Amino acid sequence: MSTSTPSGIGILGSGRVAAALASKLSLAGHTVTIGTRKAAEAADWQGPPVAFAGPAEAARHASVVINATPGDSALERLGALSDELHGKILIDVSNATVRGQDGMPGGLSYPGSSLAELLQYALPGTHVVKTLNTMFFTVMTDPGSLRTPPTAFLSGDDARSKTVVTGLLADLGWPPAWIEDLGGISTARGPEALMLLVPSLIRNRGLTPFALTVAV
Q: Considering the entire predicted model, what is its pTM?
């Protein structure tokens, strides 16, 4: 565990992304609580040690909270946790898209803006940082599995919070050279829009691990 990162992490969500991040961060030495309304998730868990709690409790007792809930409903879900998230770092890894008839992303839920910006606006006492939303979920915790080094984009208004998130990315296996700090939270529009490339990539290549990267 990096000395610059906190140990108390709450992860909101109970899907594949939440499980992958929880497992890797727990193995890195962090105290992880998964915030979910599905009580049965605790009994079915087979990964490294983590705690389970309701979303509000998981956020209340963490210094860093990761949003791994569906992006199209995240604004409402997290807006209801404004008190619990006050003063915390909120890492948003989700994508807010409108589903097409084929079930794939067919458009952005917030054209002209981004989910990360709207979360920051709705949660002014929280430091929102956008990252890890431009890749298959397995790459989030195993970036070295790809033949080409991937890029983890970083957007956020608070420099200290981005430093903390960079430390957490290191614990997930991301070297500094693979992290691209784009600037303030408004720069999250670019990475979120890249999600619209995914349907074409899946049609061309199948459902295999991938990440969008900067090649120089």
A: 0.95
